[in-house]
Here is the input.
Amino acid sequence: MNRILVCGPKSEWFCDKLGKKLELEPIFVEHKKFPDGETYIRIPEETTGKKVIIAQSTPYPQDKSIWELLLMIEAVTHHKPEKIILYTPYIAYSRQDKIFREGEPISIKLLLQTLSLAGATKLVTIDIHKPETLAYFRGPAINVIPVKTLSQKIREYTENPLILAPDKGALNRAKQFAKELESDHDYLEKQRDRITGEIQMKTKTIPVKNRDVVIVDDIIATGGTVAKAARMLYEQGAEKIIVAVSHALLAGNAIEKLGSADIKKIIAANTLPPKSSVEYIDVSSEIVDHLL
Ligand code: R5P
Here is the structure.
């Protein structure tokens, strides 16, 4: 077999499923923390001349996850692999994609350039915040929005749903879901204060009376966006609101916030470590062809 699947510490909840789809036995890396806090990684398998697929997401603690990924790439390069393909379903720092306030870095640019520099030759990811930022990676970079698998679940929980983007930037994603579900779509207008992070949702009349509504987004982080949107939609008569996202970060008290906004269901792709209250869908089938 000329291909090998190397699974990092931040892939343990999805790598077996990915291995099955790829028909490869996953090789889990050895890893530990040195007494001084530094990270140790070892790949317990020969990778010379092989097409190496490295699977590692970058959840909290993001900086450590990224460093583990870089160490894995570095370890593989020593064995002269044919290719190093990264499957990094969640790419941290993707929202710092421009200088919002003078003095800030473009974090995603540095991260993607560094992955190339370390030796990765191809990158496959799920629903990165701004697909155009993948141009910072010096090689083919594929972004997959798991519309098909998430839609299968949405069908189970809704009837003739209205698909809603929480802001105009997410409209394209809502359109794709609406097409798959043969449903209609709309968007809300949101503004975020760049200093406090506070969200303002402009009141907008949406035809939601007695409808099932699905809010689709790339990320739920603090839950603020979805909670604000849900309150407005229930006030306008929505029957049931569920959420379908690619990345359920759910930082801090996000789950409580969503519960108190009466979100009936949170559906998420399995890009991040599982948390209670979320129904995760394996998205391996959507990306597997890009890793062949
Ligand atoms: C922002 O543009 C993203 O697409 C999400 O809407 C945002 O990250 C959600 O953040 P939060 O859950 O903190 O409102």
